[in-house]
Design brief:
InterPro entries: ARHD_Rieske_2Fe_2S, Cholesterol_7-desaturase, Rieske_2Fe-2S, Rieske_2Fe-2S_sf, VanA_C_cat. Keywords: 2Fe-2S, Iron, Iron-sulfur, Metal-binding, Oxidoreductase. The protein is built from six helices and 17 strands. By secondary structure, the chain is an alpha+beta fold. The longest helix is centred in the last third of the chain and has 22 residues. The radius of gyration is 22 Å and the shape is globular. The two termini are 17 Å apart.
């Protein structure tokens, strides 16, 4: 499966930029292979549209913003955040603007300090991430960057706790302690929840970030698939610290993902501690990125395509959720059209 083959993916909200980065200039963004433009209008209103002028097809993101309206760089047509054309400079002042002279707008909203768009008709709201709105927690934005990996691969990696001992052996993992203890997995429609505990190595950076001492700690992880490309993980430490990890994977196209990570902490870290947390989390994600960018973008949906173990229960359910969404359309070919070439041989 490639993300472009599943029309249902258009019906979710995706973060495309930090709200703080949306200034006086329009910004080009890409979701599911389609180009969009976002801009800041009057009184905090946000505009989002297909990045193409209805007049002669120029890229609106190459234009600029005047009085909250987006100005096309080709002929100067202006568009309000609603999509309505507000000015055609070449027309006589008394000539009305045709109603069809408007951008193809898409839904847009701001939440958690992020700009979200929905290319289709939303089947769900912007995901509820309770700690990101909770005044008892401090919200820290860490990473937003494009990875050369497909969005399902990115979220599959987030749901896969058992890789920590190996992929992250240089940061928080220890391959001599790979056991996952007390794993439970629950599914409710498109939501998945799991709980597991495991040994996490305490490096100097981890001790500084958590306030713990010793060589190892037992960390309890409460993972949740909130939406197909939105992940939440509440990490519980023995000293009462809660480090809540949010990951979103905006599918740019079949082979690229806008990866966004932000966290919420209940210990109100100062600036120096925040910098240390961000530095370690970036190292951890770079370890994932290095691995994921070498995995082919197609994502298997048939259970027999791969081998599975007991600790893969969360990622097995993820495949079932995506397979159900893919089944709404006839666009997704079976795994054996690509998996055999990759070395897999479905039974």
């Amino acid at each position: 499966m490639l993300v472009s083959q599943v029309p249902a993916f258009r019906d979710y909200w995706y973060p495309v930029a930090y709200a703080a980065d949306l200034t006086l200039s329009p910004r080009a963004v890409r979701v599911l292979g389609e180009d969009y433009v976002i801009w800041s209008g009057r009184d905090g209103e946000i505009g989002a549209a297909v990045d193409e002028c209805p007049h002669r097809g120029s890229r609106l993101s190459q234009g600029w913003v005047e009085n909250g309206d987006l100005v096309c760089p080709y002929h100067g047509w202006s568009f309000a955040p609603s999509g309505v054309c507000t000015r055609i400079p070449q027309n006589d002042p008394d000539k009305p603007i045709p109603p069809r002279a408007r951008t193809l707008s898409v839904l847009v909203a701001e939440r958690y300090g992020l700009i979200w768009i929905c290319p289709g008709m939303p089947r769900a709201s912007i995901p509820e991430l309770p700690e990101a709105d909770d005044p008892e927690y401090v919200l820290i934005h860490e990473i937003m960057e494009v990875w050369t990996a497909s969005a399902p691969r990115v979220i599959d990696n987030a749901l896969d706790v058992s890789h920590l001992a190996w992929t992250h052996r240089r940061t928080i993992g220890d391959s001599s302690r790979p056991r996952m203890n007390g794993l439970t997995v629950e599914r409710d429609a498109e939501r998945l929840r799991s709980r597991v505990s495991y040994a996490s190595r305490l490096t100097d950076a981890q001790r500084a970030n958590t306030g713990l001492t010793g060589e190892f700690t037992t960390r309890v992880t409460n993972s949740e698939l909130v939406q197909p490309f939105v992940f939440r993980d509440v990490m519980e430490y023995e000293n009462g610290l809660r480090h809540v990890l949010f990951k979103t994977a905006t599918p740019v196209d079949d082979t690229h993902t806008l990866f966004c990570q932000f966290i919420a902490r209940n210990d109100n870290p100062d600036e120096a501690k925040r910098a240390g947390i961000i530095e370690l989390d970036r190292k951890i994600q770079n370890e994932d990125r290095e691995l994921l960018e070498r995995i082919r973008p197609e994502f298997p949906l048939q259970m027999q395509t791969e081998m599975h173990t007991r600790t893969d229960r969360m990622t097995v359910e993820y495949r079932r959720i995506l397979a159900e969404l893919a089944a709404e359309s006839a666009c997704v070919p079976p795994d054996n059209t690509w998996a055999v070439r990759a070395g897999f041989r479905p039974l």
